[in-house]
Amino acid sequence: MSIRRLWDRWFASRPRLRVPLAVVLVLALGAGGWQAYARFTDDDGPREWTKGPYGKAPVALGKTAPARPGEMVRRLNRTPLAVVGGLALYKDTTRDGTRLTARNVRTDRIHWQYGRDKELPYDLVIGDELALLWWNGGGLTAVDLRTGEPRWHAEAPRTSTDGHHGLVTNARVMDGTVLVASEEELWALSAADGKRRWRAAPPKGCERWSPTDAPLALREVYVVEAGGCPDDPALDDSPQTDQMAQIGLDADTGAVRWRFAHDARLAPYRPVDDATLVAAPADSDGGMSVTDVSGRRPSTRTLPFPDGERARGNTARTLVSQAYDDPGALRGYALDDGRRRWTHRPPKGTRLGEAVVADGRMYVVEQPPQEKGWPPPPGPSRLLVLDAERGELLHFLDLPELDGRRGGGAQELVPSHARNGVVTVSWDRSSRYVDVLVLTDARP
Fold first, then answer.
1. According to the UniProt record, where is the region Disordered (predicted)?
2. 3-state secondary structure of 193
3. What pLDDT was estimated at residue 35?
4. Considering the entire predicted model, what is its pTM?
């Protein structure tokens, strides 16, 4: 007998009960649906939720950083955490919990929101397809960037706050793999389902992983930093090493393939190609370090590098740096012999903000000189696009005046998020609530 016939037979003589029972059933179904919708149901514990997605996921405005930015997509009043594809991502953290919001870059409308009540993240990293949150209560959540729905939940490496190092965690989302590291362990997880592929303790001769800098991906190898390596036979006794090492782990198994000394005075290593790393000193008294890991043992060359400069990025043949005393002049140094290949200085009466290197190009804002006091001085500025190999000016765009008064610590105009056909420009990337221009290639 069908449910409809049972319903009609039962209420044939009881018509007054139909409406109250229908209301009870709707409420029960709604409550059950919410319980299924929420990951956690304990009133005293965290609970996660998703609103949206609202419509189809927007597509990226391009495949690379824009070569000739000239069209303004949006003017935002808040700096995005990241711009991925056609979405701008924001994070809000309060005592009530954490919320991620994805907005359509073209329209600024909310595409989805994900939240977790009563818990805050140690770490949050954004990949091309998912956002990974490492919670302070333990555990990992991977949120799908297209829908805002949790893709998977997984355990996290154990952490400790007993030592003087405190609690240190780091994560990286790469093609098909999620690497998560604490001082005690490093795990490789599948980006598809969160299942652990392998785990690695600090290598023999080292006390801990040092996840200060995010892991790097080379050909078949993940590069991770380790610390507390006083007896490491691969390292010398120079105090410059600060007992730190760069470790190459097999991408499939986590086994150690090679290691080499890491000068603690150096800025983070940068990949040159799938078998070469480069680092330039963050302070004086050092040289550029280029390490080739294609052979059985790493081979490191130290090249000259001037004091008072900071590396901003690199191509396969050139390291781009920026001088603080010139003011902010850009220079390119050859990675084969360390010689200076080019210099770009701002015109008299202007300065350059911090540069970004992406897809073989440099993005930097030419702006009025910095003055004492606050707010930052208004004045004409323009976004420059230069060839990172030759230092040649490829394109420039006059920028509208941007309000830096709300930024608090805003000191200079900087570009960021140069990818997926978009480059953003705003006051100081550490400032949260400021004007942000979202630019894409000018239409022909």
1. 286-312
2. coil
3. 40
4. 0.83
